[in-house]
Specification:
The chain has 125 residues and is mainly α. The protein has a single domain, classed as AhpD-like. Helices cover 76% and strands 0% of the residues. It has helices spanning 5-22, 24-38, 45-58, 62-74, 79-113. Helix 1 (5-22) crosses helix 4 and helix 3 (45-58) packs antiparallel against helix 4 (62-74). It is globular and about 35 Å long.
Length: 125
């Protein structure tokens, strides 16, 4: 459980940058994979971020929730789209996904309060 997902996201960004300096090869490859996997294609970046969020919830990853709620909003996801993603994750992940779905909702609320969602021109909810 995280008290402040926007701050946690920033912390993870800094730690990832530090790890990238210490572990150049694998982190460079991961950054390239991330870019290629989330690039626009048959599925939009937004849909890909929502899929990643659903997976992050089902595998119970706090950092994944912070990253993918943030990145889904940045990619144009609405509050309702994120909520429906949480619903699908609960369907697929059962009780533990309910707990992490609550965490994803908290992250969404915190990013919304920080102004990130209000800067999304496609926002709804």
């Amino acid at each position: 459980m995280r008290d402040d997902y926007p701050r946690y996201y920033e912390r993870l960004q800094k730690l990832s940058a530090k790890l990238a300096k210490e572990l150049r090869g694998p982190m460079s490859a991961f950054v390239q994979l991330n870019g290629a996997a989330t690039a626009e294609g048959a599925l939009s970046t937004k849909i890909k971020q929502l899929i990643a969020l659903g997976i992050g919830i089902t595998v119970r990853c706090d950092g994944c929730i912070a990253y993918h709620v943030h990145d889904a909003i940045r990619a144009g996801a609405t509050k309702q789209e994120i909520l429906e993603t949480i619903g699908i994750a609960i369907l697929m992940g059962g009780g533990p996904a309910v707990v992490y779905g609550c965490e994803a909702l908290e992250a969404l609320d915190q990013f919304e309060s920080s102004g990130l969602l209000s800067s999304n021109p496609e926002k709804a909810g």
